[in-house]
Amino acid sequence: MTGRDFAGRAGLWMLLALLVAAACAPAGQPEVELRLGFVTNTASEFWLPARRGCRDAEVDLPGVEVLFRMPAHGTIAEQRQILEELLDLGVEGVALSPVDPARQTDWINGAASRLLLVTHDSDAPSSRRAFYVGSDNRAAGRMAGELIRQALPGGGRVMAFVGSLEARNAEERLRGVQEELRGSGVELVGVMTDPGDRTSRETNVLEVLADDPGIDLLLGLWASNGEAILRAVRRSRRMGTVQIVCFDSSPEILDAVASGEIYGTVVQQPYLFCRESVRLMAERLRPERYRTDSESPLLPPDSKVHIPTLVLTRDNAADFR
Predict the structure, then answer these.
(1) Which of 77, 165, 249, 281 is deepest in the core (most CB within 10 A)?
(2) What is the pTM of this model?
(3) Could you list the pLDDT tens digit for every one of the 321 residues in the chain?
């Protein structure tokens, strides 16, 4: 076989391979016109509804592809690496939940100069992010504070737990709780943080229960802390003598609210965090393609799109689920 014959046959096989690949491609799948990223603050069941929100946004916005990423350990270094990888993949916009907004401001600003960068779940208002989509965490904290007042009508002592107070959502929730408890006879005696692993979260709670038998209520500011509190109270056999209030709606938390083991939880809507972030980024980046109402403002004046939070107790947890 001559070199020319080989090249001709190789070209024919390549053409046939392309035709077969085209025939096997999913029917009706639109060509990617806009690639976006959605980056969480850690890996958690809390974010599973957000993943579904991203998929539904792709259906609503043909031609948009969303790359969903969860950092395994919730570190700044992981988020930075993910952002670089997304840039290499050609994303034009990223929605990020900053782990530590104050320490991340400079590199958020750097990323914002290369693509459309928005925040979700936890804001970085001092940065050059384009806008924020998520809960009004201070208002959500006040809702949790009201739950605590209901659980302890005669007053009492509360210990709070959270992964990190550096995250703005944690700081704002705590401030809202403190505002609501002012003058109530309920004392917030302290806040414990953890390095982000399940064992330490549960150990923190067990130590508080052992060292301070006068604690009346345990507050979990993140979903992972609510779950750890629940497990620790069960292990210590203090269920019924110590009340629990927390945030979010993992299956474990919802079951415990429905059974009365958890007095109440303040529920966010991560599904809408992603769906709305993607929709707004697409409208901003491709207004001629995805903007449906050019007459109304794209964003509120403060560039914050607040997703409503809900309060669940034993009375309505089953209906919510």
Answers:
(1) 281
(2) 0.78
(3) 444 443 344 344 333 333 333 344 344 556 999 999 999 998 888 899 999 999 999 999 999 999 999 999 889 999 999 999 999 999 999 999 999 999 999 999 999 999 999 999 999 999 999 999 999 999 999 999 999 999 999 999 999 999 888 888 999 999 999 999 999 999 999 999 987 677 889 999 999 999 999 999 999 999 899 999 999 999 999 999 999 999 998 889 999 999 999 999 999 999 999 999 999 999 999 999 999 887 778 899 999 999 999 999 999 998 887
